[in-house]
Amino acid sequence: MSKLYSFARKKPRNPFVAGFILENINQGLFRLKTKTTCCVYELKVSALSYEKLKKVIRSFEKDKHLYKFNVLSLLGFLVKKPRKDRYKKYCAEFIAEVLAYSRIYRFDKPFALVEPDDLRKINGIKKIFEGQLRNYPFKKSKIEV
């Protein structure tokens, strides 16, 4: 939980300026929304997959200025018509891409149709926390992306 990557607000008070961000639970939107609830999941992966995952995340970071939050993709999701745009994503779509490009998990549907419930159904995934984010038992991790 030392690094949280997301497609979300870049400016906490403006939901229309959004894209790929590195979130911090003590800043930004989480600082304003102190009662934010969450579920934290764990998925064990091989060392090779983890290295691939880090590489995928670094490519997003390198081009972060190009990425935007994809509101139209959410509408496409609602009517089950995926809308592809390389630089526009929503959160579950981003996670699906990272998992696929890291060869960790591949969904049987387009990335733009993946929803949070699909992520919870990944074989081997384990919920390790549910509650208010401020109550998460943060620990220093040796694992970094």
Short description:
31% of the residues lie in helices and 24% in strands. The protein contains five helices and six strands. The chain has helices at residues 28-32, 47-62, 71-78, 91-101, 116-120, and strands spanning 4-11, 14-23, 37-42, 68-69, 88-89, 126-132.
Layout: helices, strands, pairs:
Elements: E1 4-11, E2 14-23, H1 28-32, E3 37-42, H2 47-62, E4 68-69, H3 71-78, E5 88-89, H4 91-101, H5 116-120, E6 126-132
Parallel strand pairs: 4-5
Antiparallel strand pairs: 1-2, 3-6
Overall pLDDT level: 86
As a whole number of angstroms, the C-alpha radius of gyration is 15 Å
Largest sheet: 2 strands, antiparallel
Structural class: alpha+beta
Structure keywords:
single chain, 145 residues, alpha+beta, two-stranded antiparallel ribbon, 6 strands, 24% strand
Describe the 3D structure.
The protein is of the alpha+beta class and 145 residues long. It contains 5 helices and 6 strands. The chain has a two-stranded antiparallel ribbon. It has a two-stranded antiparallel sheet with strand order 3-6. It has a two-stranded parallel sheet with strand order 4-5. It is globular and about 35 Å long.
